[in-house]
Design goal:
Length: 204
């Protein structure tokens, strides 16, 4: 069974900013905890309204699916946005980075041998988080066969794929080949990520 990360965009009613906002997992979900027993949630202003938004990570009891619920305070639209992860075990936690209004969400799998990062920036016209970048990195098997890095800039259409091989003498990876191409700029948002996921993951 493939392990699925489901990102859901849910609007929250704002009664009073001074009283603070309440963000709760939907009924039937329990918080997902990292190996250190701490939650894997995130808090920060993602949509530029000077009110902290929230990402809550939860799971259902007895299920091996993780769900990241993204709560945007400025958005009144609801969307269910699944993105598929290629392994059927829990990732080694999620990492978040918010810089220059760009939120990066990263996760690694298989003892850290395969990692993905997706970058969003709030788009006022779309009233949604817009995907502006997607990266993958695989360390391959134990002999580093199949190791690669890929990077896709959705704003410019620039895509780069670099394959690596392990140099026994240097005991280090070295570039085997690199291909670059220009893709047609594509608008992918949190709300239409599911149907466009193959575009992000494509290595063509």
């Amino acid at each position: 069974m493939k392990f699925i990360l489901l990102i859901m965009l849910i609007a929250q009613s704002i009664f009073s900013q001074s009283k603070g906002l309440k963000f709760n997992l939907p009924k039937g979900y329990v918080p997902y905890l990292n190996f250190d027993g701490k939650s894997n949630d995130f808090s920060g202003d993602l949509d530029g309204d000077n009110v902290k938004d929230k990402i809550l990570v939860g799971t259902k009891k007895g299920d091996n699916q993780l769900f990241a619920f993204v709560y945007l305070t400025s958005n009144a639209k609801k969307g269910v946005v699944p993105s598929q992860v290629l392994y059927d075990w829990h990732p080694m936690g999620f990492e978040y980075k918010l810089k220059n209004k760009v939120i990066s969400i990263s996760s690694c799998f298989g003892n850290g041998r395969f990692c993905k990062t997706i970058r969003f920036r709030y788009d006022g016209e779309e009233k949604d988080l817009k995907v502006i970048g997607y990266d993958e990195e695989s360390f391959g098997n134990a002999a580093h066969e199949g190791a690669y890095k890929s990077s896709y800039n959705l704003l410019t259409g620039d895509y780069e794929y670099t394959e690596y091989t392990f140099n026994e003498k240097k005991q280090d990876d070295e570039v085997k080949s690199t291909k670059k191409k220009k893709r047609k700029p594509t608008v992918i948002t949190l709300s239409n990520l599911k149907e466009n996921l193959k575009i992000l993951e494509s290595q063509d």
